[in-house]
């Protein structure tokens, strides 16, 4: 089944000033359970595309469907609910620096109305899953980059989302740590069944993660399909 579908999506940030198109007629479909890769240079439109999926950006034209629902037509309450089903991780991790690891992961659960006991056991389970058992009381500045991204990932999947959006999730990390995070994202896909859309300017990261990819250039998809076929082309 189709989890995400973009049809004719364009985005112009400053339409009044006649700004360039950040997205220029994107058609894209992501199947439930797959890891879908978006690759392209800086400025190609990858982040913008990702942020149209959880409606952080509203397209200038075109349609974004998540599980068959047009996200452009949602009320504020429906948007909040949508965003709970879509986790997101970032290049710079996006952690609250003054809060403990525990609170970083627990906060979205509190906001979603989880009960205290359920939050405690869920956070413990997540710390275990991402390999940070024992770090609940640490502050982000006491963690390595890879550990911070593990916290970011735990927070993103805390609320049992069906989709995870990863925006340059490994771009601030060294090669070994990148491999560890790649493995963690794969296990999230395989063991938890979460559909992942992964954005990177690093082809080898995409190649290790994604089943299918789209290559973006100047806001348009210039190529898409099976990653290994694309890589094999002259
Ligand atoms: P990528 O993620 O591939 O680096 P982005 O989606 O960040 O690309 O950017 C696509 C284009 O849109 C770029 O030209 C960028 O400068 C522009 N852009 C991105 N975000 C904004 C914004 N908030 N306001 C205005 N222009 C933006
Ligand atoms: P509050 O509603 O005041 O945030 P909590 O019981 O959720 O109360 O948490 C209080 C603090 O205790 C949290 O900030 C967290 O650092 C810590 N804490 C609570 N439960 C755990 C746990 N299972 N593991 C680690 N730290 C915890």
TrEMBL record:
Complexes and interactors: Homodimer. Forms a membrane-associated complex with FtsX.
Record keywords: Amino-acid transport, ATP-binding, Cell membrane, Membrane, Nucleotide-binding, Translocase, Transport
All residue ranges annotated as the ABC transporter domain in the record: 4-234
Source species of the chain: Agrococcus jenensis
Tagged with keyword Membrane: yes
Annotated protein name in UniProt: D-methionine transport system ATP-binding protein
Single GO term (MF): ATP hydrolysis activity
GO cellular component: plasma membrane
Family label: Belongs to the ABC transporter superfamily.
GO process terms (BP): amino acid transport
Range covered out of full length: 2 to 235 of 339
Function: Part of the ABC transporter FtsEX involved in cellular division. Has ATPase activity.
């Amino acid at each position: 089944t189709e989890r995400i579908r973009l049809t004719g999506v364009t985005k112009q940030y400053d339409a009044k000033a006649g700004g360039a198109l950040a997205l220029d007629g994107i058609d894209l479909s992501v199947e439930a359970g797959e890891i879908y890769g978006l690759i392209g240079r800086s400025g190609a439109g990858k982040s913008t595309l990702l942020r149209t999926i959880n409606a952080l950006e509203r397209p200038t034209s075109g349609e974004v469907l998540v599980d068959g629902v047009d996200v452009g037509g949602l009320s504020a309450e429906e948007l909040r609910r949508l965003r709970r089903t879509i986790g997101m991780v970032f290049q710079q991790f996006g952690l609250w620096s003054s809060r403990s690891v525990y609170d970083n992961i627990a906060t979205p659960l509190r906001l979603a109305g989880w009960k205290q006991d359920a939050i405690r056991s869920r956070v413990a389970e997540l710390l275990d899953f991402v390999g940070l058992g024992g770090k609940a009381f640490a502050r982000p500045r006491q963690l390595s980059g890879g550990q911070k991204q593990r916290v970011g990932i735990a927070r993103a999947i805390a609320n049992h989302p069906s989709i995870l959006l990863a925006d340059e999730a490994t771009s601030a990390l060294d090669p070994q740590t990148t491999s560890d995070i790649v493995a963690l994202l794969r296990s999230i896909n395989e063991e938890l069944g979460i559909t992942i859309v992964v954005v990177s300017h690093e082809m080898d990261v995409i190649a290790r993660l994604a089943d299918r990819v789209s290559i973006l250039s100047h806001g348009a998809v210039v190529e898409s399909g099976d990653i290994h076929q694309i890589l094999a082309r002259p």
